[in-house]
Amino acid sequence: MQNTLTPDWEALLADEFQQAYFKELIDAVDEEYQTNSCFPPKELIFSAFNHCSLAELKVVIIGQDPYHGVGEANGLSFSVNDGVKIPPSLRNIYREICEDLDYIFMPTSGNLESWAKQGVLLLNASLTVRKDSPNSHKHLKWNKFTDAVIQKISEEKEGIVFLLWGGFAQKKGAKIDRTKHLVLESGHPSPMSANQGKWFGNKHFSQTNAYLREKGVREIEWFF
Question: Average pLDDT, stretch 110-127?
Fold first, then answer.
């Protein structure tokens, strides 16, 4: 598997790519894809980086792992391919955006590439998954790599908004430097968490845009 990233991310993560664990990770992922049905397609594994310019990075949203159904995952956390039914968690994200920003119309597509192209890094903790087996690649050291990504962003950038939804994401973002970045936390948008009152009303999307405005940075257009 080729870890082909755009030059800006390649430079930021160059040291990580030379680590022994990363080489082991790539070999393990190759073996998984040869022996099992895995998602997303190999060429989309690093899509979160390749759709989001490091220079234009504004927001980081941390997910757990890709969707595990056929044709769903496209390499971006919480995102699915065009034509795929919008998953429950993403539907709740859309609903919160509507309520937070007073939008009327819900999107009909769950493809979040438009967010990524505006500077939203949609980063899953594990970048791959086995078909019909959620969290099946957590043992492949993806977490070590994505922890390093988050740390590098925290150290090298300023004024980034980190959206940490649920205990897993909050634990993963525990070392973010909150003196130079905005960290917003809430429950996860999954139906179980949302129905317990831990998601709706967090107003993360308006808070994100208010912070970006204060920094003189163009806001995210959450819906087009």
Answer: 97
